[in-house]
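Changelog note: in this version the structure field was regenerated for every chain. One regenerated record is shown below for reference.
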Amino acid sequence: MLDEHVYTDEAVSGLSVEDREGLQRLVHAALRTPRPFDVILVDDTSRLSRDVVDTVQQFRELRFHGVDLFFVNQGLHSARDNAEFLLAIYGAMDSEYIRELGRKTHRGLEGQALHGFSAGGTAFGYRREPLYDASLADRDSQRRRIGVRWTVDPVEAPTIREIYQLTLAVWAWRVSLVCSTADKSRLRVRRSDTVRAMTASVRDGMSAPFGSS
């Protein structure tokens, strides 16, 4: 194995060949004349791509230029008569794996949200607090975590309150400006109970404790 021709795409998804700098450099080196190597060792078919079409296209391009591939995990050599057929099967399995992983991840996040727990992410003004069930234990006899809930962050909460107070003040100012302009223009505009009720509702909401239901 040539140390100067070891290519990796660390922390980059194999879902597509796009934005795969390591893979692109490998293919570029393989197509040079003269070639620096004749065989490419690939750890797993999924490392070439998790898209079956991309996998077969890359395979065909490299084979057309006389470059062999050996997929270590599958023990598959491109010189086999049915190599492309087997690669297509492995590629289809790799594609289905990533789709199934996405479905399972979404289902898990949805379940957490339906139980009132956090489904991930961050929100200014709140912090994430793990919840444990003392009656359940994991493999290490530790309390099993059942979810993560949002709790008010006492440091950031005042900033959120201030933002909403400013928003309320701007909204009230706009209502007052519209009515004042209408009066000066001698337009017949009634300050309806609806506007007053909306203003009072927002004001009452802003006076409630932050994070209360």
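Spot check on this record: The helical segments are 21-30, 45-48, 52-64, 83-114, 157-184, 193-207. The two ends are 63 Å apart (CA to CA).
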